Amino acid sequence: MAILLQTGIFLHEKIMYPEETVLTVFALFLGMITGSFLNVVAWRIPRGESIVYPRSRCTSCGVLIRWYDNIPILSWFILRGRCRNCGEHFSFRYALVELITGLLLAGIMLKYGAGILFIRDVVFLSLLVCVILTDIDHWIILDSVSIGGAVAGIVFSILPGGIGIIRSVSTAAAAFLLFFLIRQLSKQILKKKPGYAIAPEGHEDETDEFQGGMGWGDIKLAAMIGAFLGPSATVVALFIAFLTGALTGIAAMIAGRNRRIPIPFGPFLALGAAVSLFIGQEIWSLYLTIGLSY
Ligand SMILES: [Zn+2]
Hints:
Layout: H1 2-16, H2 19-44, H3 74-78, H4 92-112, H5 116-138, H6 143-158, H7 165-190, H8 216-229, H9 231-254, H10 266-292
Helix pairs in contact: 2-4, 2-5, 4-5, 5-6, 5-10, 6-7, 6-8, 7-8, 8-9, 8-10, 9-10
This protein binds zinc ion.
């Protein structure tokens, strides 16, 4: 009894005293499990498979992956990135996604603490990670992620501490319109060169779609980001997206990449949104300070 009581006090102190540490470690593990789930989502949904059933199997030999071989990050290192049954190599990317998602959630917990806003940011970051994976692999941004995400962003805006429904909806609409205009303009400009772009594998019948550079997926994603972030942080997110996108395009050209092969823009939007979620207000304030001092 005394031991139980002591343990209780010990746990109590542990939670009360370095509360932040406990919560951050919790967020780290939650993030690694979330990342593991996102790997499954990004693999299965574009292939039209269910995300709940069946359980994970080796994509090479089809053997069921045991729970102890499915521990985020750890299993990858224990098995040295190979299937226990057939030895098929699993990409390090799976472990990397788990690690990055874990660090993102830990960062959010450190910055904003536990509460509804933490749940909102977990949802937002999960959607962004999903965008990056499916857009890089399949040139797809799922509607359930972009449109579903926009609805989620609006719902979270009404909850305590949220940005408010008017800011959420109006920013989503403005971002949608801006990207739609960019699409129309770039289509007009690039119209002179039909068949210029080389459509990626699996999208050969949509060559025209890759002519303008801005797909419908990007437009809906911009609206989703606006719904979550509100006006100033969205401006920062889009600025980072266009800047990093342009720099990557230039770097790819210098490295000798064929100009006709497009680069997906979704990952840059997702990156900009994630950076803005952490330091968007700081960048915005800095911008205002510099702007006002002139
Ligand atoms: Zn296998």
